[in-house]
Amino acid sequence: MDIDIDPSDKPDPEVQSWLEKLGPGLVTGAADDDPSGIATYSQAGAQFGFNMLWTIIITYPLMVAIQIVSARLGRVSGHGLATNIRRHYPAWLLYGSVVLLLVSNTINIAADLTAMGAAVNLVIGGPMRIYTVALAFISVLLQLFVPYRSYVRVLKWLTLALFAYVATVFVVQIPWQTVLVRTFIPHLSWKSDYLTTVVAVLGTTISPYLFFWQASQEVEEMRAESGQRALKNAPGQGRANLRRIRIDTWIGMGFSNVVAFFIILTTAATLNAHGVTDIQTSSQAAVALKPIAGRFAFTLFSLGIVGTGLLALPVLAGSAAYAMAGAFNWRNSLALKPQLAKRFYGIIALSTLIGLGIGFTKIDPIKALYWSAVINGVVSVPIMGLIMFMAVNRKIMGSFTIPTRLRVTGWAATIAMGAAALAMLCFMLSP
User: Fold this and answer.
1) Is 82 part of a structural domain of the chain?
2) Which regions span the lipid bilayer (predicted)?
C-alpha cells in the first residue's frame, strides 16, 4: 500500500495535559468494574477473604498487554477488530465471534441494569423497576444525542464513581500487615470452588467486549482529530500515538485493577471476617456491608454500583454495535448523527432494550450472569488468538507489528484465558 508523507505525519506536539491524553484506555478499564464485575469481586472477597487478592496482581500485566495490542490494532489499521477479522479471516469465525459477543453483552447489560435499579432502591427507596427502565433509557439517549467529544468527557467523569470503592476501605478496619502477606503469599487451594472463583475473576477482568471497545475508540479518536490518519499510512504520527496508548492503557487498566483489589479487600475485611460468605449480586454486597461497616460505607458502595453501571452500559452496547457494524460493513461512529448510522445506533438501542426486557422475565439474573461469564471466558480465547495473529500481520499493521515483549505477554494472556476457559468447562462437566 502506498504511504503518503505530509506535514500532518509529524509527531503531535506534547501540549496536551496528562488528563487529556487519557481516553480509550481509561474508559475501557473503568468500564471493566461494572456491577456484574463488582458482584464477582465481592463474592471472591466474601468467600475466600484476603486469599483472592493475588489474582489482581496477576491479571494486571496480562490485561494491559492484550488491551495495548487491541488499541494498537485500531490505531495502526484505522479499523475496529471486527472489520479486520472480516477482511482477513473466514466468515464463520467472524460471525461466530460476533454472535457470541452480542449474546454475552446483552445478558451482561441485563444483569447490570437490574443491579443499578436495585442500588437506587437501596439508597432512596421507591420502585426498583421504574429506576431500571429510566437508567436504560438515559444510557441510550446519551449515546444517541450527545456529541461524541462531549460524551467521552461524560464517560471520563463517570470513572470517578469508582473511587467509592477506594473510599470505602478507609471507613472500615483493615489488617494491613495480613493484607500484604496474603497478597503475595496467599493460601492456595485446589478445591473446585476456589478454582472456579479464580476463573471467574480472570474472566471478569479480561473480557472480549473490552477488546472491541478500545480498538474502536482508537479509531474514533483518530477520526475526531484533524490531520490524524491510520498509522500504517502516516508513520510519522506513530511515536506520539503509541506512547499515548501505552500511558493511557497502563493507567486505565491500573485504575481498573486497583478498584477490583479494593472491592475484594473491603468485602474480605467486613463480610468474610463476620462469616458472610455467599454474595451473588453487587446489591447483596451493599446490603450485607451496612450492619458491619455502617451506613456511609453502604451508601458509597451502592452509589458506586449506579455510577459504574452508567459507565459500563454504553461500553457493552457500543462494543456490540461496533462488532456488528464491522462484520457487515455498516457506517459506524458515535460521532455520526443517528440518521447517518441507523443500523449502528439500532444495535446500541436494541441490545440495551433486550437487556432491559430480560430483567422483567422469569430468567434468573444470577444464572444469566453465570452463563454470560462462561460465554465470555470461551469466546475470549479465539478472539485473543486472532488479535495476536493480526498484530503481527504486515498486511494489517504495516511496519507497526508488535514488538517481542508484547508478543510474549499477549500470548501469555491468551494462554491464561485458554486455561481458565478449559478449567471452567471441566467444572461444568464434572459430576
Assistant:
1) yes
2) 52-71, 92-110, 130-148, 155-174, 194-213, 249-276, 296-323, 344-363, 369-389, 410-430
C-alpha cell at 67: 488491551
**Are the CB atoms for 66 and 415 separated by under 8 Å?**
no
Reduced to 3 states, what is the DSSP secondary structure of residue 362?
A: coil
Residue 211, C-beta contacts closer than 8 angstroms, at least 6 positions apart:
66, 67, 70, 81, 380, 383, 384, 387
AA letter at 327 = A
Write the CA distances from 94 to 84, 99, 288, integer angstroms: 10, 9, 43
Cα end-to-end span (Å), the chain:
55
Q: Give the mean pLDDT of 209-219.
A: 91
Q: What is the pTM of this model?
A: 0.85
Whose cell is 422469569? That residue is: 362
Going by pLDDT thresholds of 50, 70 and 90, the confidence category of residue 416 is confident
Distance CA 285, CA 41 (A): 10
CATH number, position 124: 1.20.1740.10
Burial of 275 (0-12, 13-18, 19+ CB in 10 A): exposed
- Indicate the residue type of 68: I
> Which runs of consecutive H residues, i.e. helices, occur in 206-294?
208-224, 238-270, 282-293
What per-residue string of b and e applies to 25-48 under the rule 16 or more CB within 10 Å gives b?
bbbbbbbbbbbbbbbbbbbbbbbb
Does 3 map to a domain?
A: no
228 within some domain = yes
For residue 284, what are the domain limits? 18-429
Cell of 88: 482477513
Confirm whether 333 is domain-assigned: yes
pLDDT in tens, 341-391: 899 999 999 999 999 998 888 766 556 666 666 667 777 888 899 999 999
**DSSP, res 53:** T
381-394 b/e with 16+ CB inside 10 Å = b?
Answer: bbbbbbbbebbeee
| 57 in Cβ contact with 104 (< 8 Å) | no
Distance in angstroms (rounded) separating the CA atoms of residues 48 and 273:
10
428 φ/ψ angles, rounded to the nearest 5 degrees: -65, -35
Residue in this structure with the C-alpha cell 447490570, named with its chain if needed: 112
What total number of domains does the chain contain?
Answer: 1
